[in-house]
Amino acid sequence: MDYKGQKLAELLYTYLIVIFGVIAWIFGYFKQSFKVTFQGWLAGLIFCMVLCVPDWPIYNRNPVEWLTEIPPPKPKPAKSTGEEDKAVEKDKAVEKKKTKNRKR
């Protein structure tokens, strides 16, 4: 179901429930029976559900054009530089000094 189809289904459902409710209330008022009112409203509810819940072709008239998939970037191979190795060794040396100072 496309976006315009969703809007159409919602509008149909809203208006039909109100129309069936008003007609059912009028019949129930003249019959002096809440049961008639409820049955009329229930019939309208079932009719609206059959009309609006399934994905009928009338709700698919404006299909959404999706974008094509963008391929993920290829990972670059990691190049080992001397600077990275030196930075790691420096961090390890700093950690050793901290642990020695904590023991004292």
TrEMBL record:
Q: Which keywords label this protein?
A: Endoplasmic reticulum, Membrane, Transmembrane, Transmembrane helix
Q: Provide the residue span(s) of the region labelled Disordered.
A: 70-104
Entries under InterPro entries matching the protein: Spc1/SPCS1 (IPR009542)
Location in the cell: Endoplasmic reticulum membrane
Basic and acidic residues composition-biased segments: 81-96
Q: How does it sit in the membrane?
A: Multi-pass membrane protein
Which positions, given as ranges, span the membrane? 12-30, 36-53
Using the UniProt record, give the first listed, main subcellular location: endoplasmic reticulum
| PANTHER family per record | MICROSOMAL SIGNAL PEPTIDASE 12 KDA SUBUNIT, SIGNAL PEPTIDASE COMPLEX SUBUNIT 1
Q: Name one GO biological process term.
A: protein targeting to ER
Endoplasmic reticulum among keywords: yes
Family recorded in the similarity comment: Belongs to the SPCS1 family.
What this chain does, per the entry, is described as: Component of the signal peptidase complex (SPC) which catalyzes the cleavage of N-terminal signal sequences from nascent proteins as they are translocated into the lumen of the endoplasmic reticulum. Dispensable for SPC enzymatic activity.
- Per its UniProt record, what Pfam families does this chain match? SPC12
What name does this protein carry?
Signal peptidase complex subunit 1
Look up keyword Plastid and say if it applies.
Answer: no
| Gene Ontology annotations for the cellular component aspect, listed alphabetically | signal peptidase complex
Q: Which domain of life is it from?
A: Eukaryota
